[in-house]
UniProtKB/TrEMBL annotation:
Species whose genome carries this gene: Astatotilapia calliptera
Signal peptide region: none
Gene3D superfamilies, A to Z: alpha/beta hydrolase
Pfam families documented for this protein: ABHD18
Name under which the protein is recorded: Abhydrolase domain containing 18
Transmembrane intervals: none
Length: 324
């Protein structure tokens, strides 16, 4: 699909619809509101795999040069895909940043999270504190190295998923299918291995890590009302989100000079305070700031997005004229 602007620049666009969006969303999902924390991780893992397949197909069909871009979550997903592409490629993420943790814990969208349910699950299930936190110490490691080990950990305990956890055979098959997708990159495996085990909001995260029954649960109702519970739940959510979505946990793109990031100075949806910047994670990339917020930038600044796309492609053509 190509717009009038694309045609003027001699470019074409192939649009990938995210899992859980449009025609790909579950029937019981309300619009784009993801039902489970895990859905975001599964979405990322699937998109890495699908983007790799599409890029390889475009290469075989003779299209060149190739690049990736997106706005908001689309920009973040484009960034994920490029971290797992083994060649130099232009990347133009617009209105996205280095991690999804701040989006769901401090940004505007944090108000849409069902914290009451998550706090209840966190209070009742002691394994969040006792076991899951240990898995989150990997933050900052390379996703290619991290993926296989986490897949092994999940596989070792997979047989213990049973009626105690109300998982049907079809659900178990879907989880295993996410782990072994036949050629998925390790970055995708990392997201899928953790994502497949954080279903039903937080609830089934411990089940993929080992047998768990009523004897392991907190039963004191007062636990659900302890003063620090909200802060603990937010901290846990931030840690899980950083583990699975922080760009520092994924490989650095082959040539960061081909990355042009476009950010809004007053973006309340994607807070940049307190998290690593993309310049720190991807040395050599360019960040362009525009005036306005998330919505106003999306509605009125698309000419700036297009210019960034043209500039990134021009850099590629100058730097790699024979890479085809």
């Amino acid at each position: 699909m190509a717009s009038a602007h694309d045609q003027e620049a001699g470019m074409a666009s192939l649009l990938l619809e995210n899992p859980y969006y449009g025609y790909r969303k579950p029937r019981d999902q309300l619009r784009s509101s993801l039902k489970n924390v895990s859905d975001l991780f599964v979405m990322g893992g699937a998109l890495i795999l699908e983007s790799t397949v599409l890029l390889r197909w475009l290469e075989r069909e003779g299209y060149w040069p190739l690049g990736m871009t997106g706005i908001s979550m689309g920009g973040y997903m484009a960034s994920l895909a490029v971290t797992n592409w083994p060649k130099p490629i232009p990347l133009i993420p617009c209105l996205s940043w280095s991690t999804a943790s701040s989006v769901f814990t401090t940004g505007v969208l944090s108000k849409a999270v069902n914290w009451t349910q998550l706090e209840k699950q966190y209070a009742i299930n002691s394994r969040y504190e006792e076991e899951i936190i240990k898995l989150l110490e990997y933050c900052g490691a390379d996703s290619f190295k991290m993926g296989p080990k986490l897949v092994t950990n999940v596989d070792e305990h997979f047989h213990e998923l049973s009626e105690d956890h109300k998982l049907s055979v079809s659900q178990c098959s879907r989880v295993d299918g996410g782990r072994d997708c036949g050629g998925a990159t390790d970055g995708a495996e990392h997201l899928l291995s953790l994502g497949s085990s954080v279903g039903a909001s937080f609830e089934t995260l411990p089940t993929a890590l080992g047998g768990y029954n009523a004897h392991g649960r907190r039963t004191d109702p007062a636990e659900c009302c302890r003063p620090s519970l909200h802060k603990e739940s937010i901290s846990f959510m931030k840690a899980v989100m950083d583990e699975c979505t922080h760009m520092a946990n994924f490989s650095v793109p082959v040539d960061t000079s081909l990355i042009v990031v476009v950010q809004a100075k007053e973006d309340a949806y994607v807070p940049r305070t307190g998290v690593l910047s993309l310049q720190e994670i991807w040395p050599g990339c360019e960040v362009r700031y525009l005036r306005g917020g998330h919505i106003s930038a999306y509605l009125f600044k698309q000419n700036i997005f297009r210019q960034a796309i043209y500039d990134a492609f021009d850099r590629f053509c100058v730097k790699y004229p024979n890479l085809h």
